[in-house]
Amino acid sequence: MQRVQTAQSAPQGKTGYLGPEGSYSSLAAKQLSPSNEQVPYHSFAGVVQALLKGEVEEAVLPVENTLQGAVTQNLDLLYANPELYAVRAFLLPIEHRLIVRKGTKLEDITHLYSHQQAILQCSVFLSQELPKVKIIYTDSTMQSLSHIKEKGDAGIVGSHVREDGFEFIGGNIADEPKNFTHFLLIRKGKEDLPKHSSRIYFAATCPHEPGALLKMLQILSVYDLNMTKIESRPIKNSPGEYCFFVEFEGDIAGKNVRMALDRLSEYSKNFKLLGCY
Fold first, then answer.
1. What is the pLDDT of residues 108-130, one digit of tens each?
2. How many CB atoms lie within 10 A of CB 224?
3. In the chain, what percentage of residues exceed pLDDT 70?
4. pTM of the entire structure?
């Protein structure tokens, strides 16, 4: 079942997402902010820039997939922009389908179009059933439809897509049938952070000393906080150093959470609260 984690309701405005309409990001945007105007952009960087410039009041970004792990580009965008915070989360079930012009058979396909993440999440099917196909990345899964002109063309889109003149070949082609993507609703400024939360998300770089990561994570243990996720990203222009993205269970209003965040900030070389939801 699709589930949106609770947060303060947002005023009507504009929500930016990776388009076009019908993309997975657009589905997440409609769930996270159903009353807002949905504004599509061609790239995740474009979505973030629109938020920073005030073209939209909020943005929807995928940050993790159960098959491919972290969407590293978006982790970097969150960390690099100190004004941005996640205020809500949504887990979207993902089902990839092979879409073609009507009458096309599997053996007709020579070119396959889709977003890089979708291609990676269907790697087993593609290696077994379409090993010689030429793969072309598109800005989003939905954009692949505009490239399907003849019988040799195909795309990978969500099972929700319905377009005249197109049909699916077979069922779900993802490597695993239970595939989910974790989306975050991002806003500019701390004032929109919810007063209460069930999870906290932060990024930190550790001091360059033995056991630094362990010492950082022990802070969560001291305050009886359960870590739910951790990812590492190399720090640009600093070989051998990493930034850690950590999510843990907790209420942002809780005394133990506030004390833990203060300790984490004091211990880390660089610390950023990414959000709470």
1. 999 999 999 899 999 999 999 99
2. 9
3. 96
4. 0.81
Write out the E strands in the chain. 3-4, 14-18, 37-41, 58-65, 69-70, 84-93, 96-101, 111-114, 134-137, 153-158, 166-169, 180-188, 199-205, 227-234, 242-249, 270-276
- Are 67 and 179 in contact by the 8 Å Cβ rule? The answer is yes
Is the predicted pLDDT of residue 10 greater than 70, yes or no?
no
Q: Which of 201, 210, 199, 212 is nearest to 267 (CA)?
A: 212
What amino acid occupies position 26? S
Are 100 and 166 contacting, i.e. CB atoms less than 8 angstroms apart?
yes
- Following DSSP, what letter does each residue of 164-202 receive, concatenated? TTEEEESS--SSSSS-EEEEEEEEESGGGS-SS-SEEEE
Q: What is d(CA 18, CA 139) in angstroms, rounded to the nearest whole number?
A: 8
C-beta neighbour count of 88 within 10 angstroms: 26
Residues ≥6 apart with Cβ < 8 Å to 194: 6, 7, 8, 87, 88, 252, 276, 277
φ, ψ for residue 33, nearest 5 deg: -140, 70
Q: Report d(CA 41, CA 153) in Å as an integer.
A: 24
Show Cβ contacts of residue 40 under 8 Å, excluding neighbours closer than 6 positions: 16, 17, 18, 19, 20, 21, 23, 26
Three-class secondary structure assignment of 15-57: EEEECCCCCHHHHHHHHHCCCCEEEEECCHHHHHHHHHHCCCC
Tell how strand 227-234 and strand 180-188 pair up: unpaired
Helix (H, G, I), strand (E, B) or coil at 103: coil
What confidence score (pLDDT) does residue 3 get? 45
Rounded distance, CA 16 to CA 51, Å? Answer: 7
Distance between CA 183 and CA 75 in Å, rounded? 12
Rounded distance between C-alpha atoms, residue 62 and residue 92, angstroms: 10
Both tokens of 190, joined, read 């701390």
